[in-house]
Amino acid sequence: MSHQYIHSGAGHDAQFASYVLPTTMIFVQSKDGLSLCEPEFSSVKHCTEGASVLLNAVLKADKLDAYTNTL
User: Fold this and answer.
1) How far apart are CA 2 and CA 8, in angstroms?
2) Cβ atoms of 26 and 12 closer than 8 Å
3) What does the pLDDT look like over 4-21, one tens digit per residue?
4) 18 vs 1: CA distance, rounded Å
5) CB under 8 Å to 14, separation ≥6 — which residues?
6) Which Gene3D superfamilies match (predicted)?
7) Is the Cβ–Cβ distance between 24 and 14 less than 8 Å?
8) Do residues 6 and 16 touch, judged by C-beta distance below 8 A?
9) Which terminal CB of the chain, N or C, has fewer other CB atoms within 10 Å?
10) Is the dihedral of CA 8, 15, 29, 42 positive or negative?
11) Model confidence over 24-59: pLDDT tens digits?
12) Angle at CA of residue 27, ends 21 and 29, nearest 5°
């Protein structure tokens, strides 16, 4: 699965949570780049890949040392 780092204007709740804890957002590809509108569509494949990224991030975070933030 390919990925890229992007800067997004999207704020969502992550914008406010970032003041008190590290945050990130996972974006899933949407057909024709449409978002937050009725014709928005993301394939099962892309949604599954996004869920996999989230799962792996949670599993990695679970292994972090709470005091040093290292594995």
Assistant:
1) 18
2) no
3) 787 777 777 888 888 998
4) 27
5) 23, 24, 25
6) Zn peptidases (3.40.630.10)
7) yes
8) no
9) C
10) negative
11) 889 999 999 898 899 999 999 999 999 999 999 999
12) 175
Task: For tokens 């009725």, name the residue.
Answer: 38
What would the two tokens of residue 23 be?
A: 């945050």
- Report how far residue 56's alpha carbon sits from residue 51's, in angstroms, rounded to the nearest whole number: 9
Predicted confidence (pLDDT) at residue 1 exceeds the cutoff of 90: no
Q: Cα(55)–Cα(23) distance, rounded to whole angstroms?
A: 15
